[in-house]
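Hi there,

I know you've been waiting on this one. I reran it after we fixed the sequence typo, so this is the corrected version. Both the input and the resulting structure follow.
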Amino acid sequence: MPLNDRVNRWFQLDGCPAHYILPVQRWLHNYFPGRWIGRGRDCPRPWPARSPDMTPLDFFVWGTMKEKVYAEPVNDEAALQERIIQAAREITPAECRAAAQSVVRRCELCIEYAGIREPGQTLVNYFFSNDN
């Protein structure tokens, strides 16, 4: 991805432990300095642990893939691999955009129902303020 496209983008990790090893964190600091969300002592923006309702991979991708892959019984490993690849190909860019766009509302609802919303507060100034 060209530098000018990366400047205003954030990188969000999911809960996979392999994503938090030091080489990955170094890569993130290099390519997304101060703009990645995850966990770890040097993470610029910690993401709430176990928050599948706010992570598109958890609330959309994995369930969609599972439905497609296991719609019928799988006979062997080769068929399973092919179904996984096909299921991933069938997820459209529009579906990915819709899932990503729903994150803001999902986070706002979490903040609202946790009772921490203040008048005039938005998700952006809540989540990205230094106080939280």
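Quick highlight: The chain has a mean pLDDT of 80.

Best,
R. S.
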